[in-house]
Amino acid sequence: MGNFSDRGVKQSIDWKLVISYLLLIIIGWVNIYASIHSEGPASIFDFNFRCGKQFVWILTSFVLAAVILFVINPQFWESASLPMYLFVLGLLVVVIFVSKDVKGSHSWFEFGPVKFQPAEISKITTSLLLATLMSQTNYRITRFKDFLMTAIVIGVPMLVILAESETGSALVYAGFIFVMYREGFSGWWLFSIFLAILLFILTLTASPYVSLLVLIGVLMAIGVVCTGRMGVIGWVNLAALILFCLMPWILGKVTAPESFLARLKPIYILIGICVCALPYFLIKGYKDRRMHLTMSALGLIAGIALIFSTDFIFNNILQDHQRKRIEVLLGMKEDPAGVGYNVNQSMIAIGSGGLTGKGFLNGTQTTFGFVPEQSTDFIFCTVGEEWGFLGCFIVILLYVYLIWRIIVDAEKSREAFTRIYGYCVAACIFMHLFINIGMTIGLMPVIGIPLPLLSYGGSSLWAFTVLIFIFIALYRQEKKYY
Amino acid sequence: MTTEGNNRSRVMLIGLVVVAAILLGKLFYIQIIEDKYKINASNNSMVYDIIYPTRGIIYDRNGKIIVSNKVTYDILVTPKEVTPFDTLMLAATLDISPDFIRDKMAEYERNRKKIGYQSIVMLKQIKPETYMKFAELQYNFPGFRGQVRSIRDYPVNAGGNLLGYVSEVDQKYIEAHPDEYRPGDYAGKTGIEAAREKDLRGEKGYHIYLRNSRNQIERPYKDGEMDKEAVPGHDIVTTIDADLQQYGQQLMQNKVGSLVAIEPKTGEILSLVSSPGVDVSMLADISQHYNEIIKDPHKPMFNRAVQAPYPPGSVFKLVNGLIGLQEGTLNTEMAYPCNHGYHFGNHKLGCHGHRSPLKLEEAIMMSCNGFFCYVLKNILENRKYKNIDEALDKWHDYVQSFGFGRKLGSDFPAELGGTLPTSNLYNKRYGKGGWKFTTIISISIGQGEVGVTPLQIANLAATVANRGWYKIPHIVKASEGVEIEPQYYERQYTMVDTTNFKKVIKGMWRAVNNGPGTGCTAAIAEVKGLDICGKTGTAQNPRGADNSVFICFAPMDDPKIAVAAYVENAGFGATWAAPIASLLIEKYLNGETSRPELEKRVMDGNLMSRVKAY
Fold first, then answer.
1. Pick from B8, B32, B44: which is nearest to A370 by CB?
2. Which ipTM was obtained for this model?
């Protein structure tokens, strides 16, 4: 099956990708050793400790990479994507019922000493099936049927993983929206999602009123952008918006606390106006075929619904620990000993690193167990403490280079399958990178997912190796033949 | 598609760089600009060796120690430093079984990663003698060491509910007292220990050490310049009379209820017994006995003296009588008939047999129910007020001025206020205008919606003794370095004039001293020469036999002590409560009892079988 002819190994493989992959793995291994250093391993190869075990995972990953590059025909991935997807989906469901409860989640298969998480493999199979689906010649994401299929391929494993209580792994699947965007999915959707998250956070931290004002402001701005002019109505609208921004303050100033006006909450006035204006927008939008008017009106309805259900979602749908993590992240509650402990300790560890770090094995925070999960989810703390800002900079640069290179390669490839798969890989790595590092420095809530290639753990390392090397193999095949 | 795709790929590449820039920006901020995290990190690599202060000693009013400290030792192990040792020898030294040590060592081995270089408490609270033995042989056992710990010691059995206990703080407690406690600290949780926690606890000190990257302590930080020595807690002088308290405990043993004594002039609580209580032998290490205490059906942790809302029964007639006098609806010459009770419609509020009609003084002496029904009727149907609502609310204000229906404001933690009806309550229950005097007749005799704590009726006794005012009852006296709130020095006046109190006191004197066979209710409480004035009460208890109640003070003309005794399911006020209160007064004023048989009957009396468990 392997074919070493044509342009040969040296030219056909994207060695720059392989090298950045290798560098990240080695950085990870060294830092795992540093983080468990105080437990007293004899050397970095001591198999009784995580550093030695990671060495074994690394070696086996190389074997996997070699098999993918030189043994398996790259065409296999496209043809086998559906059965593999279904098989892994089956595993995802089965694991819920047979696994032990690990910190509330049911996601690990255990065979004696060997443990693995089907959620890790699921990223690969989902990416493959997504690439297969979206690379069909008659596929148009703007067509509802195709969009629905795409949503199902992404959504089903995501929901099953949510049912396993692995919120972090499920969140990674949200990254596939970038792939959809690349393949023609409307940018407005992306925009709407960010706006929804913004409104949710604003409603929680500021007030529903502020949130509603921001929503209206954004919709007005869109109107201006879409029509391309400000107009008299635009200026009037802007003035009205500013008036409403000042309204709570004005009402507080001019009226006695007990009067009717003071008891009239500004938010109800605003909503009253919105409700009156909506039919006008809907009818006018329909009659004049002005799409943006109709969409703005729908957006306003959805936005108001979101703002008013925020409290309900936050208090009734989210689980206790998730709510607490979000509260700590948004600074609504201080909790340095409880939920905030991890983040606080991890930020102390990273922050104490300074510009150049304390040096290899000299970290005090990470080695004494102040930081929990230090060799898995919080491995970045060791990097931050012992290698400082420069170390962090280099690691993040390597990741950015890796993702960048994958996207550029994907764009260069002629097969749609390779391109879409490449974007899937980039999206997965990106989501892991952002969520994990974001968590260690307090930008994201504490969501337990590993840092690709750096964190300790065979499951994760194998999964990312396979994910990346399938792409390298696909890309190599193209280079070989064209 | 391709150009569109290229555009979009460019958008995403830009997005990637932006996100990376955000991450790096935040990293730059916390690693280079913000100092907060570096300061925190240096805290983490310095070791604070906490030195715990000794807790203040608690004295009684006469300088007798009620609570002090004693020294015990904990045995600590640092598993990383342990070398193979003679298990049998260590076991013999510490008086424990070799298996215990083997189990512990196996447990540490299992958790070695979690433990790391930390030290762990292996054995708690060993005696100083045992520790001395261990100290001599310590060189045989590297990795093991002893640590001094001081625990509470109780030379006098003054009752667990009064003293309170000290135990390790939990998460909830730490959150309730931000910045004051850390896990592993101890704090007073109930009784005096909790009331004066701030004085008793003292201030922690610390020694700071630096540790190296193997978590071993290297040297004192800045040669100990920054160290802080512990400041011992303030001693506390209580108002309790230790001997009286102990005597009260004996009188109340094997009975459920409370016994409270107050010095009327000062409001100082002389003794406060809640029975059954936690035995002081359990207090020092209460966590060991916690399950046992919680399971006790009689709830020994429940401080009945300040928390249980009981119906006061007939002792409440004093309050109604005083209000009647003040309102002018009653005077000492009025006489009311009582034909085995007060009859209304087909109903009757019953009374015992005695001659009729009676005037106020004799009505108090004989505790006539019928008489006091008329008293309350006249108060509530007073023409001065628009309707019964207004009259009842006026009555409510009067009663409240005696310290009922609200917290007295004592320094005792967890004091409760009891219950007192208002027109609102009855309007809610029966509808406006749907009730009249006979609907609520039972409050004439201290039943129904009136709920009072034993502390409140003791305060009533003190108020009557003072002829119209009281000082808020309290348990801590001011002493060097310890101040008490100024309100404890202030007289709290009731809404009833002094002259009216004198009329009632005569009846109380006769209730005790009129001589047996004359119809007086508390002849059993009489002590020659002490001029005890008292009032019995027999309060209905829905769970079985009536509660026995008695309040009194003595001597009549210069009151030195006021007492309330409340014994659950003990029957008539005169059977148990009156002798208990009387013996307590006699002990306090005369030092010993002249009635050893009565004392023996009371102390031997076991009423526990009558009390239904909660």
1. B44
2. 0.86
